[in-house]
Amino acid sequence: MTDIFREAGVTIIHLGPSYNSLDDEAMMEFGGALLAEATHADPPRLVVDLSQTEYIGSSFLELLVRAWKRIKARDGALALCEARPFCLEVLEHTRLNRLWPAYSTREEAVAALSIHPNGGDGTRAKHQPD
Fold first, then answer.
1. CB 106 within 8 A of CB 5
2. How would you label 56-88 residue by residue, b for 16+ Cβ within 10 Å and e otherwise?
3. pLDDT at 130 over 60
4. Is residue 32 one of the residues assigned to a domain?
5. Cα dihedral 12/17/18/22 (nearest 10)
6. Is 126 part of any domain?
7. Which range, 26-35, 48-57, 93-102, 120-129, has the best average confidence (pLDDT)?
8. How far apart are CA 58 and CA 98, in angstroms?
9. Eight-class DSSP state of 104
């Protein structure tokens, strides 16, 4: 299940335990929610909470790119938070970590997008290993 809520002018999409590996069915639900929020969130600031996601693949990355393009077209920002080490490694290998800041905590991500609404302060927080 995808939980969507707002905090300090930032929309947060939290992927619950059913998204541990983001199978096809879960991917469809997540994709619909993510793209809808990227299109309609006001203001266009979006944080994707990956705290319960162990694996991301090409379909997931494609959804993030599509959402990011929609957010950017609206002069907004997308950030990730609480990504697991494997997910961070995938983002680094694909160099997509250059597009979206990845914060260690949800609080850091929300604060960064609240203060700097177009994508944080230019620095990227390092994920702290579990």
1. no
2. beeebeebbeebbebbbebebbbbbbbbbeebb
3. no
4. yes
5. 70
6. no
7. 93-102
8. 17
9. S
How far is the C-alpha of 78 from the C-alpha of 65, rounded, in Å? Answer: 10
Cα separation of 57 and 55, whole Å?
Answer: 7
Distance CA 43, CA 8 (A): 10
CATH number at residue 15: 3.30.750.24
Cα–Cα distance, 130 to 117 (Å, whole number): 29
- Give the tens place of pLDDT for each residue, 46-100: 999 999 888 888 888 999 999 999 999 999 999 999 999 999 999 999 999 999 9
How much is the pLDDT for 129? 39
In a domain? residue 39: yes
